[in-house]
Structures are given as C-alpha cells and as structure tokens.
Amino acid sequence: MTPRPGRDDDPDRLYTLTQGRSRPATDEFDLVTLVVAESDPVPGMQSEHVAILRMCRRPTAVVEVSAQLKLPVSITKILLSDLLETGKVTARHPRTTPNTAGAQRLPDPTTLEKVLVGLRHRL
Q1: I want to staple 53 with a disulfide (CB 3.0 to 4.6 A). Which of 14, 25, 37, 45 is the partner?
Q2: Which residue intervals are annotated with compositional bias (Basic and acidic residues) in the record (predicted)?
Q3: Rounded distance, CA 59 to CA 52, Å?
C-alpha cells in the first residue's frame, strides 16, 4: 500500500510541527475559511509557516492549504492559528460579508430564496 501524505507521516513529525498541541488556539477555521497572508515570511520562521504565507498571498481555503502542505487539516488549523495569533494572516468565512458597522453578517435569507427560485426556473 502506498503511503498517504499527512496520514501516514511519522507521528513524531506531526507532534513536532505543532509543538505537542492537538487543537488550534481558536475556532476561527473550518474547511472553507479563506486565509490571506498579511506579511511576508521572515528568517527563522518554521518552514510550514513560510509555505503558508507564500501560498496565501491570495485568499486560499484551509482545505487547499492542507492539501498543498500534504498535512492533515487538524495540523494545518494549528499552524494557521499560530499565524493568526501573530497577525501574519487574516481569516474570514466566505458566507459572511461585512455590514456597515464592520461586523460580520450572513446573507439575507429572502434574497437567497429568490436566487434559488430564479435558478430553478432557468433550469
């Protein structure tokens, strides 16, 4: 059987990457959360952090970051939370849009329903 990147990695390597942590410091990330780098990598950074910052110059979903790093999503979320805590990345869920006060809000359900009805009529 061929090894699966991330899943069949040496557990010691994954433990080292996360410094022994098994959960991210924040619940900010799910699979489709978009991550954007807010700074360039600096010398001395962990190589995975450098890769994430380079990869996220444009909005990139957590699941894409995980796939590119060939690491489990759970490990990727821990690495991303490190960068979020230091202000090196920002994260936002694609479902939310800022309102006039700058807070996040969900799209209007009535508008979504109208779009759905319109799509059904076109198909």
Answers
A1: 37
A2: 1-13
A3: 11
Give 68-108 pLDDT, tens digit per residue. Answer: 999 889 889 999 999 999 999 999 887 655 555 555 566 67
- Rounded to the nearest 10 degrees, the angle between the axes of helix 73-85 and helix 47-55 is 80
Helix axes 73-85, 62-69, angle to 10 degrees: 110
**Which phi and psi (to 5°) does residue 51 adopt?**
-60, -40
In a domain, 43, yes or no: yes
108 in any annotated domain: no
Range of the domain at 24: 11-96
Q: Please state the domain count of the chain.
A: 1
Rounded CA-CA distance 120/6 in Å is 41
Counting every residue written for the chain, the total comes to 123
Q: Are 11 and 71 in contact (CB under 8 A)?
A: no
